[in-house]
From TrEMBL:
It holds the Pfam family CoA_binding_2. This is CoA-binding protein. The lineage of its organism: Bacteria, Bacillati, Actinomycetota, Actinomycetes, Mycobacteriales. PANTHER family: COA-BINDING DOMAIN-CONTAINING PROTEIN (PTHR33303:SF2), CYTOPLASMIC PROTEIN-RELATED (PTHR33303). It comes from Mycolicibacterium tusciae. Residues 6-100 form the CoA-binding domain. InterPro entries: CoA-bd (IPR003781), NAD(P)-bd_dom_sf (IPR036291). It comes from the Bacteria.
Length: 131
């Protein structure tokens, strides 16, 4: 899997499970990408309507555009439903944050034509390869 190629080809990222708590990793990744990347960012969390003035969408299906990448900050038991949503909206890449790994999700995602990245931090890889 060519991580640098994926990062360079990505134009938009949906961050699923983003938190309004500045102490949460998802918040830090969003803040970093907002400051250091040219990505169009979409925030997804059904329990929050806005973070620092940015709109938060309740689901991938409600985004105003199709994201190239879906970056996932959800517990393992929610990964299959996020995969289903990711396939349904037509994203190209499913990125499971550091600590998230599910071989079945990877297999099903690849079978549906997705690039699946697991157990990696988007912020760390972006800073290392493109920062």
């Amino acid at each position: 899997m060519d991580i640098e190629r994926i990062l360079r080809q990505t134009r938009s990222v949906a961050i699923v499970g983003v938190s309004d708590d500045p102490m949460r990793p998802s918040h830090g990744v969003w803040q970093y990408l907002k400051a250091a990347s040219d990505y169009e960012l979409y925030l997804v969390n059904p329990t929050v309507s806005e973070i620092d003035g940015d709109k938060v969408y309740p689901s991938l299906a409600e985004l105003p555009a199709v994201p190239d990448m879906v970056d996932v900050f959800r517990r393992r038991e929610h990964l299959h439903s996020v995969l289903t949503e990711t396939i349904a909206v037509g994203a190209k890449t499913l990125w499971l944050q550091q600590g998230l790994w599910d071989d079945e999700v990877a297999r099903d995602g690849a079978a549906a034509g997705l690039q699946v990245v697991m157990d990696r931090c988007l912020k760390v890889d972006h800073a290392r390869l493109l920062g």
